[in-house]
Amino acid sequence: KLEAALAAIAGAQDGDALEAERIAALGKQGWVSALLKTLGGMSPDQRQAEGPRIQALRASVAGAIESRKGELEKAALEQQLASEVQDLTLPAPAAPRGSVHPVSQVMDELAEIFADMGFAVATGPEIEDDWHNFTALNMPESHPARAMHDTFYFPREGAEENSHPASNIGDTPPNGDAVGANTRMLLRTHTSPVQIRSMVAHGAPLRIIAPGRVYRSDSDATHTPMFHQVEGLVIDRGIHLGHLKWTLETFLKAFFERDDIVLRLRPSYFPFTEPSVEVDVGWQDVNANGARRRVLGGDGDAPGHGWMELLGSGMVNARVLEFAGLDPEQWQGFAFGVGVDRLAMLKYGMDDLRAFFDGDGRWLAHYGFGA
Ligand code: PHE
């Protein structure tokens, strides 16, 4: 009986068959259990002789079940490993690849172009104080130009949420305690405060560009509440408008990779430059693969051509030099500010500013950015 049982256990092909054998032998009604029960009706002498024999038999059946169970589990595991094996020689599926965003790409291009002209890259905080963003740029509290900036203000510490922002005007430079009671904080509305920070930190002469994010409470097809500018600033002795025009021409020819870029300088107004100059660039319609396309280049006054407003600039206002601690009798300079998103749209033929900030990989891919 034992030999038959051990053979059946060893031959069990799966967990269920093995369990059936266990019940047949060791279960309540099993034959080994029945043998054990007979011990109760034996004389002490008989029990002494039969007890160890029956216990040994029970142990060998239980041991056989355990070892068969181990074998079955091992076989199951091996089968699973064999079926789940990875073929490492197969080509990997293409993973989606990220790319440099056009805005970052343009900022890199600008840094490179201006580095060739001796400009360093400067940065400043996006959370700026009123003094650097406005006052030191010759926009005192009552200046109407402030209203044009649609500024995001932070509520003054301890003040009521909607207290009039002018109650906390930045009429003096913040002294160390930048978020103190006299300093109204805001999201910078342009990169021009980096002009002030650079002059204060490094004095003159100076040749910097300052790329970065700026914020205005404005949103439609051509405006997003956050956008990007690059500021340019040159301070030296004897700087004049001719330097500004040459620098912008050289930069735009390199950026748009065309020698026929023509600029038109128009008188304009910014509180921090005097004189101020609005710069237009000439465009023309060309036939590209049967489609008419507007490209930059050529004299905007020629027939079929036109002018596009591109950037603001001018000679640094003497008052701004004074705010930044420079002597206007010794130092002159020019400054300009240009929208980076705008430059990217013009260079890469993109037409919706808002798409820049949607993070849609298909849009980027359409314009040749990334896979
Ligand atoms: N800061 C101006 C703006 O955001 C641009 C500008 C910069 C104009 C420097 C003149 C000189 O509109």
Largest sheet: 8 strands, mixed
Radius of gyration: 41 Å
| Shape by Cα distribution | elongated
Mean pLDDT: 89
**Considering DSSP H and I runs of 4 or more, what fraction of the residues is helical?**
25-40%
Counted beta strands: 10
Order of helices and strands: HHHHHEEHHEHEEHEEEEHEHH
Bound molecules: phenylalanine
How far apart, in Å, are the first and last alpha carbons? 73 Å
The secondary structure category is: alpha+beta
- Uncertain stretches of 5 or more adjacent residues: 161-168, 176-181
Strand content: 15-25%
Report on this structure.
With 371 residues, the protein is of the alpha+beta class. It is 38% helix and 21% strand. It is built from twelve helices and ten strands. The protein has helices at 2-11, 15-26, 31-38, 44-83, 102-116, 130-133, 144-147, 193-202, 241-256, 318-323, 340-348, 361-366; strands spanning 120-121, 127-129, 185-187, 206-215, 226-236, 263-270, 273-288, 291-296, 305-316, 332-339. The strands form two sheets. Strands 1, 4, 5, 6, 7, 8, 9 and 10 form an eight-stranded mixed beta sheet that branches. Strands 2-3 form a two-stranded antiparallel sheet. The radius of gyration is 41 Å and the shape is elongated. It starts with a helix and ends in a 5-residue tail after the last helix. The site of phenylalanine has 11 residues, from β9 and β10.
